[in-house]
TrEMBL record, chains A, B:
Residues 10-170 form the MoaB/Mog domain. It comes from Brevundimonas pondensis. This is Competence/damage-inducible protein A. Pfam families: FLAD1_M, MoCF_biosynth. Gene3D superfamilies: MoaB/Mog-like domain (3.40.980.10).
């Protein structure tokens, strides 16, 4: 199984605004799709507030358990941006002004506007290397297997470009979607279970839709696996089985 | 400080579809806003896949650390719905058909359609009580301090209504938003830090906006605290200070 060789990753979302309900996080989904495209398995995500003990605890658990950890949030200029210090504490290293980060920020701001708060954004845990920020210049950083990125989605997404070449990739997971309309999950559950038993190397998911009251009700079946030929076979067999039961399906 | 008395909560999102990037989770945000309205502090969230060891590990860590844990996902009729069994394993109790759940499901489905898969949805860990599902009937359940709910957002949201009366509530956190346009976070960081030092009982957050390239750039300042009079005072003082610096603000 190529699964054995795929790198395993976790995401750590940092920010009171997510846990207070003020902000709907979208970074986890962006990173999930990014990692999927590289064949890296995202196995866990955590969200914590702007508290050093919480960040340190979660980060140390995740970086020990997974090949890569991606964090978002808390690297701006304000007092509630404590991620660099928390990451330094987690790794047991000092946090200092990074000359290259300082140079980048000095270029961005006119001398009168480059105040102490903005200068804080040049502070990086010792041993860290910068992650480029093509949107607002203030960099993220990598230390060990941890990639520390901004919380603003546009900036976070841009930073991923500089992260890509640093990652060991895996075989991509192939996905096939079967859309079953007019019947609920319960009507296809037994067929799906049988398919999963026959092909234990694949993952079979089932997601009902249409509870909003607007339009059709049905079930989306998802087949996932690294062996594309086997995924295609599973799709073929499952489609045939469902059609033989008189169930309408669309392959998407 | 009333903060001491506020219950603390965590959320556990269960589902491969979130970590694969297929689905953008919205349940965390819905639960976060629900808990905020009850004065319950949401302190952590985790997302794990449909794997029993992961669910058991995360659930046991969270239910030990927090007053309440809310889970979403994995309680449907298909083979990948393993939450009831995982919760039973976490609590060390058997999972059995719950007579009341069975009665609810028998009423919903015509005899010919009430198959083994659908009957699985009546299985609840011993000692659990049901959480009503007014959308599709298949219930969630509560066991100890853990509330197990559906992953489909419409159903999850409806289940929260039956959860509300079971929760100890806290003093609500009052929130004031100051929208600062035309200047970045770095320009207001020092003023904000000073305000936070003066009032350590409040939380001051800062969130830049406008990086999408469409329209105004600025910073949203958020003041949060359980003492409404102090939150109002902080808003007044911070507004005055920003205006004295010639910065445009709008209180929202």
């Amino acid at each position: 199984m190529t699964d054995q060789a795929a790198p395993a990753a976790a995401v750590l979302i940092i920010g009171d605004e997510i846990l207070s309900g003020r902000t709907q996080d979208t970074n986890l989904n962006t990173i999930a799709r990014f990692l999927a495209s590289l064949g890296i398995d995202l196995l866990e995500a955590r969200t914590v507030g702007d508290r050093q003990d919480q960040i340190v605890g979660a980060l140390n658990a995740l970086r020990e358990a997974y090949d890569y950890v991606f964090t978002t949030g808390g690297i701006g200029p304000t007092h509630d941006d404590i991620t660099a210090d928390a990451v330094g504490a987690a790794f047991g290293v000092a946090v200092r002004e990074h000359p290259e980060a300082l140079a980048v920020l000095e270029r961005r701001y006119p001398p009168g506007e480059f105040n102490a708060a903005r200068r804080r954004m040049a502070r990086i845990p010792e041993g860290g290397t910068l992650i480029a920020n093509p949107v607002t210049d203030a960099p993220g950083f990598q230390i060990g297997n941890v990639f520390v990125m901004a919380g603003v989605p546009k900036i976070m997404e841009a930073m991923l470009q500089d992260v890509t070449p640093r990652l060991r990739t895996g075989a991509v997971i192939h996905v096939r979607n079967l859309k079953v309309t007019g019947v609920g999950e319960g009507a296809v559950a037994e067929v799906l279970r049988a398919a999963a038993v026959v092909r234990p190397g694949l993952s079979f998911g089932s997601y009902p839709f249409g509870f909003g009251g607007d339009g059709e009700v049905g079930t989306q079946l998802v087949i996932r696996g690294r062996d594309e030929a086997e995924v295609d076979l599973a799709e073929h067999d499952l489609s045939q089985e469902l059609r033989s039961m008189g169930i309408d399906i669309a392959v998407t």
